[in-house]
Amino acid sequence: MSTLLLCVDKLEVVYQRAITAVQGITLSAREGQIVGVLGTNGAGKSTLLRAISGFHGIDDARVTEGSIVFKGRRIENSEPHAIAQTGIVLVPERDKVFPNLTVAENLAVPVAPKLAGSERRRRETQVMQFFPKLGALRNRTAGLLSGGERQMLAIATALVCRVELLLVDELSLGLAPVVVDDLMARLMQIKRELGITIVLVEQSAAVALAVADYSYVLENGRIVLDGDKARLASHADIQEFYLGNANGGQRRSYRDVKQYRRSRRWYG
Amino acid sequence: MQLAVNITVLAAIYALIACGYVLVYRVSRVLNLAHGELMMLGAYLLLMTATQFSSHWLAALTAAVLLSLSTGVLVYVFLMRKMTGEMVLAAVLTTVALGILLRGAMVLIWSAQQFYPAQPLQIANVAIALPGGARISLCAALLVLTTALVYGALLTFLRFGRWGVRMRAAGQNPLLAAQRGINLHAIYALAWGLSTLTGALAGMLIALDAGLNQTMAIIGLKAFPAALVGGLDSLAGALAGALIVAAAEILLINYVDPLLSEVVPFLVLIAMLIVRPWGLFGTREELDRV
Amino acid sequence: MSRQPRASGYFRTGYAQDLKLVQTRAERASLALLGAVLLAFPFLASPFLLDLANQVFLASIGALALMLLTGYAGQISLGHAGLMAAGAFTVGILFRETQAPFWITLPAAAAVGAVLGVVFGLPSLRLRGLYLAVSTLALHFLVVYLGGEYEAKRGFSTGILIDPPVLAGMAITSGHAWYGILGTAAVATLLLCLNLLRSGTGRAWAAVRANETVAAALGIGVAGHKLLAFVISSALTALAGALFAYHRGFVSVEAFSLFLSIQYVAMIIIGGMGSLLGAILGAVFVTLFPYGIEVALRALPGAQRYAGTLFAVNYAAFGFVMILFLVLEPLGLVGIWRRVQTYFLLWPFKHRPLAGRRR
Question: Total structural domains in chain C?
């Protein structure tokens, strides 16, 4: 078994010293794994990613309990730039590129310490090979890119920073399924070639379950279910509430739909 | 012809000061209303170093420039850093308060007298005749040259320098910049340092040209409309704004009423705010983000 | 204006009770005591103290007007001194040119203020935040320039002298008479503000300040209410300027520098944003501050050295105190006052339940 890269233990995050967003989150990612985090709106997925990648002064949020350990070092409540420099990079849900900078300038922004100029250029060309389309758009202002191109650029900029753990927030949000499939395929290729670890946060369970080696389900700020691909995919509750097909994948007639929803039965 | 020279010199003064407003605003969305005072402080620092290194004008100037750079950094580290995350108004009022504090302190330290830092440095401010019968003093010519150099350097830095690009990135989206490994505090401190440095340079050159007393901070405030007319987040805009404001001021003083000198920049400012509040080259969304 | 109950619990059963100004017996008693002190003050105080009190009253009117605009309607103004100048110059010009008595000049000043309020307020329909502050700053310079122009063109280069107002055949010059007039004016302003704020207008302002789009969606005329805030605030400010002119007997542009505007903004910041009590506390603090500095300096050994540069010490100390408040106590004096009050009200407990967080 590969070594443990990220280990989140009993994490609790409180906003504005009053609002508890997530509680008792325990999660781990092994080197080279893809970890999926599923959940509906407001379940605490983005908060979890923000906590791992560091809070900013204006967020007025703190990790009040538990720990986040990355490569054996505790990083909870560190400054975001310090965390980014250790190799954890977040691709946020929105505002993921600098709209007034060109594609090339966006790629120049990330700070990668201990990376010499030549090494960095090599890295940039390597990243460009994953996304050949970006090469053609080098001098285009990032604000003028389409959603899919933006997502590519965001992932590309993340890779330039010598990333070891890539956190991706809602890769599929607002993109056409075709574009999502393409991006996913590229992400898998990147993962294989660079040997990075990925934490994938998704509302769209189908996307996440298809690629994740191990997944967690978040609800109301707590982890309610976790397991590997096979276990989750066959779990009845996941089938009904996240994938929308009960009765073993057969379509149900609306006449059979009960007036009330089956209550969820989580048992870890 | 002389009018054109006067406009150029005044525009250079305004532009050199205005780029300080733009630098800080662009990176941290804070309007630094203490800029005039910081600029005056730079001039007084030159006065101080001039008496220390008399006759070595280069040493004195370098020392004063370095001192003002560190002043700007210190202002950020000890004061403005505490205001990150507060309301924008609170941050702006903090700079106002800083300005008042500095003004009082400068009177206490250097008194309200008129000084001529050019004297201990033994710089003769000779007038140079230009073709066309106009004249320009040596220091004023130096000022125009400095402004051109500073703008050239800043534009190159922001356009091509790696840290310049990062500075622009931090101004657009501080959170994302931090997540890409940029130390925001370092960027803000750098912006404050550079802004104070350019302001102080303007202050020093004005002091060399025309002497130094407590009214200098007013010039700093009058340069602010130049920054806003061009668009608070655009350096090229500040240059254009400075030209417009300076031309309006010189021409109105010359042909209408000398008393207008104090208000012309603000008249231009009001006109601009009515027609195009985000300035000539500014980004339009700015208005809603403030 | 939602207010926290100051009784030991929440006993209100209707909206009328919610709007009542004086709520508990203890409040009524302390108000009566305050009234008695204010009435007795002129008979006990020295002329110097009386003059200080008059200055505080004047500053309170201006600060209340600014608080209405900035603290409640959320519109920033750095042009307060310009409006005061407008009021003062209206009095000065009318008196010089037409010998108009005060019962003409004061309403005229208020009217000029109201008109200027529209002028100052028009940019607020397009601009927000910093840009609005800057536009009011520019207008301040414009008004002061016009005043200076008048002085220069009419040959009053040092300022305009104004005779004291005549009421029932008597010229009002004594500190006691001024105490009565200015005190009444300040109390009247306070009552006006209180009543405005507990009416629909006040609630509309609060909505506009919180979020203009939402306010508009709720059917509040955003533009109209913004302008109204500017008009009322400016009229009150101009009135304060006019009273200032009569009180001083003298109008000159030097009195209305940018520093005065900053002082008024400092009053509402130091006092505490969004509170009328804060405006008054801030006015008291800022008005008495230079005198406090002077006393403190005299107590120091070797004070003579600073005698010539007193204004500079004043400036520096004022800036320093303002920074202290902004950085350490953004809620201002009212914040401190409320914390003390809450401490005693809640003792032995420390925190109020979260639901009733006071603004």
Answer: 1
